[in-house]
Amino acid sequence: MDTINLIAAVIFALALVHTFAAKSFERIADRSTRHAGLFHLLGEIEIVFGLWAAVLIVFMAVLGGGKPAIEYVESRHYTEPLFVFVIMVVAASRPVLEAVKALIASLARVSPVRTAVAQVWLCLALVPLIGSFITEPAAMTLAALMLAPLVFRPGIPEWLKYGALGVLFVNVSIGGTLTSFAAPPVLMVAATWNWDTAFMAANFGWKSAIAVVINATVVTFMLRSHLSDVTADITSEGQVKVPATVSGIHLLFLAAIVVFAHHPVIFLGVFLFFLGFTHAYAHYQSPLILKEGLLVGFFLAGLVVLGGMQQWWLQPIVSSLEPTALFFGALGLTAITDNAALTYLGSLIEGISDEAKYMLVAGAVAGGGLTVIANAPNPAGVALLKEGFNDGAIGIGGLLAGALLPTAVAAGFLLL
Questions:
Q1: Tens digit of each residue's pLDDT (9 = 90 or more) over 25-34
Q2: Neighbouring residues of 86: CB distance < 8 A, sequence distance ≥ 6
Q3: What pLDDT, on the 0 to 100 scale, is given for residue 133?
Q4: What sign does the dihedral 375-46-383-392 (CA atoms) show?
Q5: How far is CA 369 from CA 132, 172, 174, 186, in A?
Q6: Per-residue pLDDT reduced to its tens digit, 285-321
């Protein structure tokens, strides 16, 4: 078992290196003639952890036999990858997206600033905070789809795109802390530590909301001269108008999936009914983002498989730190492991103090925008926005640089 744990840690480290090198593979693919397809595949961030999880399972089968390897894979919980896939597809459906676009457009029209500026600010501030009620993956999907034609397009400096991406990821990570069910790292500990929505709003929510507004305001101010009202119309032109009843039914599907987020049998059943409804009323639909959703689910499932073998070195680190050190330790560790996995390990520690509980979760959500793997909704944002960057890929170093300042703002308020 020690050998397998060590191999799992090495494979996890290789997966991290692969994640950081993904954009380099895209550049190699552009110069390659014979193996461009292979390098493009290796450059897809969404396949990284699934690929290396498969390598781990092969090693486990060779060293310990096929049956233990299969038993390990089947012992993992895949509710979160399944939920993110389903919520992405439903939230990105045209009737839901049109309803949210109409809300954003209405608010932008009555704002005291230019329409494009107001829309970008609302997508970076209001939508992440709404994530506390519709879940963070849904908020990420909606914000990314609306920001894509406004910010992540030709004509916007690359460094500003990374700044906006960093703000989006950080704001979604902390914007879900107004309730006890929307942010994956909070969800992992809420039942164990008896943290309800009132507790979250009083101890996390108001601090996060202030940080979200500051981050969104700063990056929108920096983007203002590059935003054009010509591209600010985020409503769909030339398409059949979606009736209110169809939008309402889609929103009911979305609500049902959120309510049963911890029951995959039920939310998958609801999703199948949703697919049937979209087929019946196809003239009100745009193509569903099934491919993007499946790739993100594959990424997260791979992270579940690989992350499940890292407890042997992660938990001793978490349990040995004092509260303040735990905050910064969690913030840093979140960059190399999913923040929900980190808080779950903390929930297993016996006798952990209330201050340490707060610091662990605060550090985990503050660091949720530093890398693609730091927070479960981040791969969804990458899948939907990567085409707006050079080479059609997001550089992990650029994301880290863009997320540093908003992370510092979030950390500062959560340390109050």
A1: 878 887 877 7
A2: 257, 267, 268, 271, 293
A3: 93
A4: positive
A5: 16, 8, 9, 15
A6: 999 999 999 988 998 899 889 888 888 888 888 888 9
Which residues lie below 8 Å from residue 66, measured CB to CB, with a gap of 6+?
none
Which region among 67-76, 251-260, 262-271, 388-397 has the lowest average model confidence (pLDDT)?
388-397
CA-nearest of 330, 399, 336, 397 to 365 is 330
- The percentage of residues in the chain with a pLDDT greater than 70, rounded to a whole number, is 97
Provide the sign of the torsion angle of the four alpha carbons 56, 59, 63, 64, taken in this order.
Answer: positive
Q: Do residues 185 and 368 touch, judged by C-beta distance below 8 A?
A: yes
Q: Tokens at residue 324, please?
A: 């303040």
Interacting residues of 268 by C-beta distance below 8 A, sequence separation 6+: 82, 86
> Which amino acid does the sequence have at 222?
M
Q: What is the DSSP letter of 387?
A: G
CB atoms under 10 Å from CB of 159, counted, come to 12
- Residue 231 pLDDT exceeds 80: no
Can you point out the beta strands (E) in 163-262? none
Q: What residue spans define the domains of the chain?
A: 2-77, 80-414
Alpha carbon distance 415, 363 (integer Å): 9
Q: Which two tokens stand for residue 371?
A: 């890398």
C-beta separation of 102 from 148 below 8 A: no
Q: Is the pLDDT of residue 235 over 70?
A: no
Give the three-class secondary structure for 231: coil
**How confident is residue 236, by pLDDT bands cut at 50, 70 and 90?**
low
Cβ contacts of residue 6 below 8 Å, gap of 6+? none
| Mean pLDDT of the region 275-279 | 97
Q: In whole angstroms, what is the distance from residue 137 CA to residue 21 CA?
A: 25
Confirm if 257 and 195 have CB atoms less than 8 A apart: no
Report the predicted TM-score, pTM, of the whole model to 2 decimal places. Answer: 0.88
Distance CA 140, CA 27 (A): 27
For residues 324 and 359, the answer to whether their CB atoms sit within 8 Å is yes
Token pair 């660091």 is at which residue?
Answer: 367
Q: Which residues contact 33 (CB under 8 A, 6 or more apart)?
A: none
What DSSP assignment string belongs to 322-378?
-HHHHHHHHHHHHTTS-HHHHHHHHHTSTT--HHHHHHHHHHHHHTTTSSTTSSTTH
